């Protein structure tokens, strides 16, 4: 059975418990980052900040920052992972203002999907333009506890949604979990969300890429970080920032 079928036909009643069991954050990196001299700041185009520059990568990751940044940071993250939420809270502002806007660091998020609600969230944060992916993901993590409480409050509605026709199923899950309302308040209309979630092929592609890349790049939990291709394992901000500095981002 593919990960898509395991996720979409599994019980969705306890997404937070599932995701917390699969994620963590440590201060000690697993891999190595080569020591580099401090890299000079690289100015953004006139009237812009590097953090406003966003694109989708060949791995369906969403990267912000200088496309030619010498320090490339990649995070494999789950949108229902408590450690990912903690990292976002601790790191987002300083990572954006000090490191990404310097032009030295680019920051790519790739989804590792842990459960059905996670999969729905991963599709919803892709419903807007590439520039909206990081802000929407940050909003999910900033509100993770109440979102998951609401998702778990009505398991019967989630189970009923999973019995709907395929082109209605994920929109039904989003509605039952309160996600449609959450994203509507953040610029993704109900019609837009329903249209995104009716595209089963795009939802399946997210799940399939999650499984393939987790195996290919040895991503065993979230958040897992890479700097310039080196797998550093699961880190919190206190453990990651020195690695960015070691790579030349000062």
Q: How would you characterize this protein structure?
A:
Keywords: Signal. This is Thioredoxin domain-containing protein. Pfam families: Thioredoxin_4. By secondary structure, the chain is α+β, with helices and mostly antiparallel strands. The chain has one domain: Ribonucleotide Reductase Protein R1, domain 1. The protein has twelve helices and six strands. It has a six-stranded mixed β-sheet with strand order 1-2-4-3-5-6, with helices on one face. Helix 4 crosses helix 11. The longest helix is centred in the middle third of the chain and has 19 residues. It starts with a helix and ends with a helix. The N terminus is likely disordered.
Quick description:
This is Thioredoxin domain-containing protein. The protein is an alpha+beta fold and 250 residues long.
Widest sheet: strand order?
A: 1-2-4-3-5-6
Radius of gyration: 18 Å
Can you tell me the residue ranges where pLDDT is under 50 for at least 5 consecutive residues?
A: 1-6, 9-22
- Kindly identify the CATH topology: Ribonucleotide Reductase Protein R1, domain 1
- Largest pleated sheet: 6 strands, mixed
* N- and C-termini, Cα separation: 46 Å
Q: What spatial form do the alpha-carbon principal axes imply?
A: globular
Mean of residue pLDDT?
91
Question: For this structure, what is the CATH class?
Answer: Mainly Alpha
Q: How much strand?
A: 5-15%
* CATH architecture tag: Orthogonal Bundle
């Amino acid at each position: 059975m593919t990960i898509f079928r395991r996720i979409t036909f599994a019980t969705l009643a306890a997404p937070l418990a599932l995701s917390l069991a699969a994620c963590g954050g440590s201060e000690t990196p697993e891999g190595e980052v080569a020591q580099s001299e401090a890299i000079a700041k690289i100015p953004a185009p006139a009237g812009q900040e590097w953090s406003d520059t966003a694109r989708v990568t060949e791995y369906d990751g969403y990267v912000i920052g200088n496309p030619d940044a010498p320090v490339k940071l990649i995070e494999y993250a789950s949108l229902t992972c408590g450690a990912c939420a903690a990292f976002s809270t601790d790191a987002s502002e300083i990572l954006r203002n000090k490191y990404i806007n310097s032009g030295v660091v680019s920051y790519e998020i790739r989804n590792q999907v842990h459960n059905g609600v996670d999969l729905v969230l991963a599709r919803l944060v892709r419903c807007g333009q590439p520039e909206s992916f990081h802000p929407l993901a940050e909003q999910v993590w900033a509100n993770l506890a109440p979102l998951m409480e609401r998702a778990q409050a009505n398991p019967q509605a989630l189970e009923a949604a999973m019995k709907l026709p395929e082109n209605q199923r994920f929109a039904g899950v989003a509605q039952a979990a309160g996600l449609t309302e959450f994203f509507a308040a953040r610029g993704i209309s109900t019609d837009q969300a329903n249209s995104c979630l009716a595209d089963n092929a795009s939802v399946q592609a997210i799940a399939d890429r999650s499984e393939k890349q987790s195996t290919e790049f040895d991503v065993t939990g979230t958040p897992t970080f890479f700097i310039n291709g080196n797998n550093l394992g699961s880190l919190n901000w206190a453990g990651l920032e020195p690695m960015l500095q070691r790579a030349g981002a000062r």
